[in-house]
Structures
1.
Amino acid sequence: MQQSSTYRMQLKERICLTDAACDEQIIKISIAPLPGESLQPLVSGQYVCMGIPQLKDPAPAYFAVASSPYDTDAYEFVIKCTSGMAEKLAELDLESQIEVEGPMGKGFDLSGFKGKDIILMGVGTGIAPLRSVWRTLIQERENYGKISIYAGFLSTFHRLLTDEMDELADHNIDVSISLTTGHEDWSGPVGYVQHALEDDEPSGENTVVCLAGMSAMVDACTETLHNLGFNDDHILRNF
């Protein structure tokens, strides 16, 4: 499932996901194959390296694919526009060509865990590879037990894909949103995603967890999962 050489695709769509009042710009983009070419095979949660042809600065960078193997027209990404290639993708003209390497990485291959409950945990743009997983699970819903998502954001201004995540209830997928910074109008969990997980006390006996995010968050969640009785064979990372 790994494409070793670089090839070219086109920037087809770009949407800003964050509120104007937010101090971060996060975009959703899609890139599609050039005419006459097809999308490379994907495992949910894999990533690609993107660069601009003939351009060394900014340097190519790695981004997790947010679409699923069932989305065969384009790859989608959820990207925080901080600097470098992420910032360049926020200003690039539509139809511009992008040099791509991948998909690569382990991804989240759940094919060996059919019949088990699934938990997805991520914060901020770490939900990008998890979106790839939940879009796959929607297509394969009958193969798994209870599916739960624990997503964390700094504040309501930083929430992403709100409408899409609200619709997951239609597919019998539970969603818990935690805010690091709560406010009087917020009735959900306040704190980190692992705190919400601790409160729910899921059993590790028949459950597989997909973790995505910064190393500190992944380490903290892993410790919490160990305390709840999860073993490492059921704690998956996509890299």
2.
Amino acid sequence: MKITAGVIGSSHTTLSLILQELPVIDVKRKKVLIAFQKRLMIKFKNCGLLNLSFMHRSISNESGYKANNERLEFLGDAILGAITATLLYERLADRNEGELAKIKSVVVSEDILSGIARELQIDTLLLLGRGEDLSGGRTKKAILADALEALIGAFYLDSGYKAAYTFVSRFIVPEITRVLDNRHYQDYKSLLQELSQRLNKTYPVYTLLKRSGPEHDRFFWVEVHVNGQAFGPGTGRNKKSAEQAAAKLAYEHFSNPPIEHSK
């Protein structure tokens, strides 16, 4: 099987058929896509392929177009995984397979990828159906992370593995460093739940203590109970962030128990 510029077999023909089914990119949209490429220091040969990477299934459902970015997301997920694995393999010669796998799972997690997508301003380029857009689709982590993977898949098809590797490395290497330094975002609610189940066979229970402020400027206080012990309050601008703050306090307590000094 012949491989050309990162594209296998007859996928060029398949891609051409898909792109023919897409709407014509108007001048205004084309300027936006060109500006995006300049900002990211990448260049697509096929602007239609770049545009496809931002097409959520909700807009294809509403418009009747058959294509959306899901196939590109599938491809980009694999390319991102291969590049991240290569970077970890090359940089962490002292880590075993299990450790590398754990680090990789964090680096390519939805939380981190959606954060990268926001930094790249992918949220402003998403093509969403009206309902999805009105329901806050541009802020949804899953949609943002998938769009980033679709962009990676699109760039791989357009320019090959080497170009994709260079592009992905620019934003994944800093995330690897953050994970190794323990400076990345962590879902403390999930971590606490796993720890609580392992240690006590119980689930954490969160209690909203109070909230204050007007609707547009609320502040929340939350306490979490783990096996009869209360931790908090955790505070935040919304209930979820306050729960995360409380969960962090409890998780750090159980992960780093205080040292008992002998008398």
3.
Amino acid sequence: MIKNIFNPTAEESLSFIEKHHKSKPDKTILLLVGDCMVDYRGRARSLLDWGERMVMIKEDGTVLVHQPVMREPVNWQPVGSKTEFKINKDKQLVMRSRHNRPPEKMKITFRKIKSIIVSKLRDKATLVISGMETDVVNQIITDPKIIEDGLRINKREKHVKSGLIDLYGFDKDHVPVVIEVKRSIANISAVQQLRMYVNDVKKDVKKANVRGILCAPRIPDMVKKLLSDYGLEWHEVERQVILPDDWQTTLKDF
């Protein structure tokens, strides 16, 4: 379902909103585009002078005010906000949004409205993110030989004094192996982190020989040199980003 109106007067705008959105605000999204002023009072106080913007009210009460540029909203109200509309003495559409905890309120005055859209959306999908550190960790757990033959992963997220080791295991000679995983370019801090983990394990197992391996898609030469200086190792592991490909052409497309 989608309803829209273009270049309405304030009275026409209020009538349209009351007819298509007011009775079911938890089931429709309201989108207003127009010249407006925003007055916010809450955790701080702000006033946004006249300008053409997009105002969106979501089903959960969230209010977003977007300018023509930038990703983030310039003003917003959180989930659970209550919004109402009225006409002021200057014949302008006024929107008031209020949130109780924390106490916040926002007043948006429209002196010209270009369009209003009311729509009912259906979306029960869950966002699936791939290409994270966990993907590399899972790759190594599933197939340890991508690091080296004979490697056995004994534990994931092993707690030590200085933090949380990504992977802990043993090589073919039963030497403890500490593996630190990074999802992008490895840096100096990753080397220091791995070094502390290895030192912690040495104290725990009372063995002088504990290997440390830094795994990342790319490891710069200066990082490799520092690893070598500390007696640590590295392995460049490419992330396998696997997501459903809805753009892939099939025989049915021809």
